[in-house]
Amino acid sequence: MSSPHWQPDILGDGYRQHVLDLGADPDGEGRIVAVLVRRDIQPGETVHGAVLYVHGFSDYFFQTPLADFLAAHGLVFYALDLRKSGRARREGHTAHYVSDLALYDTELDRALGIISAAHPGLPVVVLAHSTGGLITSLWLDRRRAAGRVPPVAGLVLNSPWFDLQGKPSHRGILTQLLRVLAKIAPFRQLSTLPGVYGQTIHTSGTGEWDFDLTLKPLTGFPVTVGWLNAVRRGHARLHRGLDVGVPSLVLRSDRSDLSGVYSELSDRTDTVLDVTHIARWAGCLGGETTVVPIPGARHDVFLSLPQPREHAYQVLGSWLDQHGLSTRPAGDDKPAAEGGITPAAS
């Protein structure tokens, strides 16, 4: 494997990116790339392992406090913007479009190979949010089936998308329709009601996070037939049971509000996914799975209000410690996040 060429990243000092050329798009939208982002190791930091972070739909990596927290626990941080997503989207690309979630294995395997080459022999924790949680769970199951679990040693899922919202009868009808439509009009956009999640986290609304609205629009990118069909196929595979091959931690809010109307409740609930689905299907990951609801958390638990956010960091730090995946400075018995968390810059 050739040495990666690291360039300055949009996050500024301390972050670099490497563009992964993936060649021709299997879905026919020209050439595609993925972008691996690295947080530079700072003076005095020790490295005990590494993290590979994977974003969700209508998202990209910008959560620098999360990277800082993990670095304080001895984990060098990498994040992957998947094909047609975030930093990796190019002109002519349908945002986040893919016809089969297994296609992401290409960039995930390449990113893991780069991390392993840079830190040989060290364990890697895969950390993923929302749709990324579904994508990485399926990927790790395929790696385990092929006898390729190492160097991955743990999986942390932040509000993973494990099922479609809505009534079971409606989900079934929609899934059948998607199978047909995906064959004849895969890029057709589905009309969806804009949610309130974006305004709860961005500085233009009630949030404290400043991110690039061209990479992560407040109301999200349009959902396409082919992409949602790929997700539903992924859900079906998950529901039959996976074995990701490593211990898993699943973090989620304690309640959902899918009304689509902003209220004070919107800042203290998951306004994107039904958390009962996460609770129901988490057992399908196989092996040791720890599920922790975070009271008052948002969809991204690490972008929650300060109190639930600190709770989420405490749970993550404890889980890493329990599984031998973390180091802390001598005498420090509190997670690094308790010292205060600074919102990320775009």
UniProtKB/TrEMBL annotation:
Superkingdom is Bacteria
* InterPro entries (UniProt xref): AB_hydrolase_fold, Hydrolase_4, MAG_DAG_Lipase
Which SUPFAM superfamilies does its entry note? Answer: alpha/beta-Hydrolases
Coiled-coil residues:
none
Record-annotated Serine aminopeptidase S33 domain positions: 47-254
Gene3D superfamilies in the record: alpha/beta hydrolase
Q: Where is this region: Disordered?
A: 324-346
Q: Which PANTHER family match?
A: PHOSPHOLIPASE-RELATED
Q: What is this protein called?
A: Serine aminopeptidase S33 domain-containing protein
Native species of this protein?
Thermobifida fusca TM51
